[in-house]
């Protein structure tokens, strides 16, 4: 409520020289606000109006924040700011203050703005007075209007939050919506906690602010004396209306959150179909108690959040199943190929928020063949669903079997097309099969409706290889055309063959040829190492987004001066087997010493131990440790730790007293290069150490 301009102050230039007697008679206090220093001096009557003692006020307006509620403070700041900006000489405003006993009362202020010759405001002098009697009955009306406005705002926040939650796909999405500045913070909450019910316990999934975590509450039992546990146990909201009530009802929790200055809290059960799936707590630092309307709004909000959480949990479960199927269909491991460096990558797309549509039929494969040959496959089954992934798995296995039988490339492709046609499915597939003789460098390729491959030469140039092609698999038998012409090129030592699906090339509204040229330029300027290049290409695809998944296979023919794999050791570490872990460490120490890498022995052993421990802790299976020594232009030692989990390692922030979260930081600091390779249903985390030569 502002009355700026309604009654201008007319004050002498030397005011306030002796204003106290006049103002005191009218129960008015005065203030003098120096805008340059930010200091605001007040007289004794002004102290009385604000209900602060002289020793409680240090001439800084911020000190009065405990007396002026946030909504009132924002409204008063707006009135003053507008007057300063638009050149006004004065302003006036009604606002409420909270007295020492917690009650609210109306107050009125008028200020006169003094400016210098340039018009810049330098000083505000004015009065402050108790306006309770003046407002009389209008106070109640205004208070009711304020309550109605607050209720309207709260209802609006519930509606906006519910609308935002409609787009949340994962549990983290739901948490992000609630912690967003346009979310629950508009309800005045200063802290948010949320827990999910898992196996009879409550697991904390969100807390804020970041420094508000209470030790020992990450996982709690439902029967423990915590407010979230009570909300889950009773299936009813738990409202705490004062610090004293909080301390009395929850003496274990209260001492850990006193620094948050909590004055009240609301803990809401998250219930779906009469079953609790979790609980959420909203903690406040500027309010006492809850009206019946506020309670009803919060309960309604809890119901909306519970529905969104349930939907997100179902999505994550189905997504995990779908991704598990996708990974099961891809090769579990990529074999080592003498004479070549190989890297494979797969990136799933997310389409329109539909569960199951973030997988597809893209695949890669590498097939060892007799006589130093190798077959490289890239393909894409039509569609983005579990059916496409299932068809892809069958097609991959059949194509691999035909190639292993020794059939020439054209026959392999033709038979695969007939097989897909006889599956009696409505799906077709594109595919490119390349058979390479790494001894001679001769490369034979057949293409079934797939995009052309690329070859990067040792001079840095990258060219598109035009391969004559036939119809996509599954269609050729229907049309009676099983011809797949064979294209032949020679892969020189150091050249890199790139096979990919169209998700890496195509962009909405862009021509395919333009996309191939863009990809060629990216490959030409990319890293020399095929693993680094594959990672770079997948990162670009992830940054670009798109509605198609991406499969990628890179094969680089080694040259005579390229590092060759020398000695190789491997050890299997089963979970819960300390002896196996000890033996792996002994193997690493012995091999490092025997291979002349003693200068980096401590670093290698520490990193290997960290990778093995992470694999055992964060996966359900065993770990396979491989140690390789490479010779060539530089001596390198490579450590690989393979596990059965497709989840990629992620960097976590370790707290001051945290005992975990620093593993990847150690790996990054101690190794010369490291990375992660997809291995079908699992992965391998690898790192390399450059070992100096010794005379």
What features would you describe in this structure?
This protein is an alpha+beta fold. The chain is about 35% helix and about 30% strand. The chain has 18 helices and 27 strands. The protein has a 6-stranded antiparallel sheet, sandwiched between helices. Strands 13, 14, 15, 16, 19 and 20 form a 6-stranded mixed sheet that branches. The protein has a 5-stranded antiparallel sheet with strand order 2-1-5-4-3. It is elongated and about 105 Å long. Mean pLDDT is about 80; it is low at about 5-10, about 350-355 and about 560-565.
What class do helices, strands and sheet pairing give? alpha+beta
Beta-strand portion reads: 25-35%
Question: How far is the first residue's CA from the last residue's CA?
Answer: 86 Å
Radius of gyration: 35 Å
Tell me roughly what share of residues is in helical segments: 25-40%
Strand order of the largest sheet: 8-7-6-11-10-9
Give the tally of β-strands: 27
**Average of pLDDT:** 81
Describe the largest sheet.
Answer: 6 strands, antiparallel
- Poorly predicted segments: 4-10, 351-357, 561-565
Helical stretch count? 18
Principal-axes geometry comes out as elongated
Short descriptors:
single chain, 695 residues, alpha+beta, six-stranded mixed sheet
């Amino acid at each position: 409520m502002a009355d700026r301009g309604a009654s201008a102050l007319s004050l002498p230039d030397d005011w306030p020289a002796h204003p106290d007697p006049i103002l005191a008679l009218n129960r008015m206090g005065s203030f003098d606000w120096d805008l340059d220093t930010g200091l605001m001096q007040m007289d004794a009557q002004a102290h009385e109006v604000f209900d602060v003692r002289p020793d409680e006020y240090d001439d800084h307006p911020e000190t009065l924040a405990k007396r002026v509620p946030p909504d009132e403070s924002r409204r008063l700041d707006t009135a003053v700011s507008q007057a300063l900006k638009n050149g006004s000489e004065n302003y006036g405003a009604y606002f409420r203050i909270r007295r020492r006993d917690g009650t609210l009362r109306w107050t009125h202020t008028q200020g006169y703005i003094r400016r210098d010759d340039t018009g810049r405001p330098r000083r505000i002098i004015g009065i402050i007075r108790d306006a309770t009697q003046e407002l009389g009955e209008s106070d109640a009306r205004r208070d009711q209007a304020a309550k109605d406005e607050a209720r309207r705002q709260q209802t609006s926040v519930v509606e906006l939050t519910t609308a935002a939650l409609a787009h949340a796909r994962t549990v983290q999405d739901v948490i992000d919506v609630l912690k967003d500045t346009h979310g629950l913070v508009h309800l005045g909450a200063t802290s948010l906690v949320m827990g999910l019910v898992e196996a009879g316990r409550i697991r904390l999934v969100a807390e804020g602010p970041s420094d508000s975590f209470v030790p020992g509450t990450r996982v709690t039992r439902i029967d423990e004396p915590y407010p979230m546990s009570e909300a889950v146990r009773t299936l009813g909201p738990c409202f705490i209306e004062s610090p004293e009530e909080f301390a009395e009802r929850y003496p274990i929790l209260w001492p850990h959150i006193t620094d948050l200055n909590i004055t009240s809290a609301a803990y809401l059960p998250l219930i779906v179909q009469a079953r609790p799936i979790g609980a959420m707590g909203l903690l406040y630092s500027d309010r006492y108690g809850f009206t019946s309307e506020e309670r009803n709004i919060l309960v309604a909000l809890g119901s909306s959040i519970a529905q969104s959480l349930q939907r997100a949990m179902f999505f994550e479960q189905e997504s995990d199943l779908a991704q598990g199927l996708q990974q099961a269909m891809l090769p579990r491991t990529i074999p080592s190929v003498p004479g070549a460096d190989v890297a494979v990558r797969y990136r799933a797309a997310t389409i329109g928020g539909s569960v199951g549509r973030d997988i597809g039929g893209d695949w890669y494969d590498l097939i060892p063949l007799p006589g130093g040959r190798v077959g490289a496959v890239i393909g894409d089954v039509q569609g983005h669903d579990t059916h496409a992934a299932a068809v892809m798995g069958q097609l991959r296995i059949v194509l691999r079997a035909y190639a292993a039988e020794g059939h020439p490339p054209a026959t392999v492709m033709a038979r695969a097309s007939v097989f897909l046609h006889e599956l009696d499915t409505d799906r077709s597939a594109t595919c490119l099969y390349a058979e390479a003789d790494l001894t001679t460098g001769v490369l034979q390729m057949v293409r079934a409706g797939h995009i052309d491959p690329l070859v990067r030469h040792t001079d840095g140039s990258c060219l598109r290889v035009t391969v004559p092609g036939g119809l996509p698999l599954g269609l050729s038998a229907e049309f009676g055309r099983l011809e797949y012409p064979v294209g032949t090129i020679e892969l020189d030592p150091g050249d890199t063959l790139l096979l990919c699906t169209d998700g890496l090339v195509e962009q909405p509204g862009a021509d395919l040829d333009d996309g191939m040229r863009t990809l060629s330029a990216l490959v030409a300027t990319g890293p020399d190492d095929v693993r680094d290049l594959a990672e770079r290409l997948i990162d670009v695809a992830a940054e670009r987004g798109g509605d198609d998944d991406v499969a990628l296979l890179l094969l680089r023919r080694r040259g005579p001066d390229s590092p060759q794999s020398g000695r190789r050791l491997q050890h299997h570490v089963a979970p819960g087997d300390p002896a196996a872990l000890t033996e792996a460490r002994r193997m690493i120490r012995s091999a490092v010493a025997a291979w002349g890498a003693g200068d980096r022995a401590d670093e290698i052993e520490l990193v290997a131990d960290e990778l093995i421990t992470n694999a055992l802790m964060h996966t359900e299976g065993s770990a396979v440790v491989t140690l390789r020594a490479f010779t060539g232009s530089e001596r390198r030692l490579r450590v690989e730790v393979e596990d059965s989990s497709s989840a990629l390692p992620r960097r976590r922030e370790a707290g001051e007293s945290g005992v975990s979260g620093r593993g990847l930081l150690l790996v990054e600091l101690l190794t010369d290069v490291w990375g992660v390779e997809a291995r079908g249903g699992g992965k391998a985390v690898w790192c390399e150490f450059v070992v100096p030569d010794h005379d």
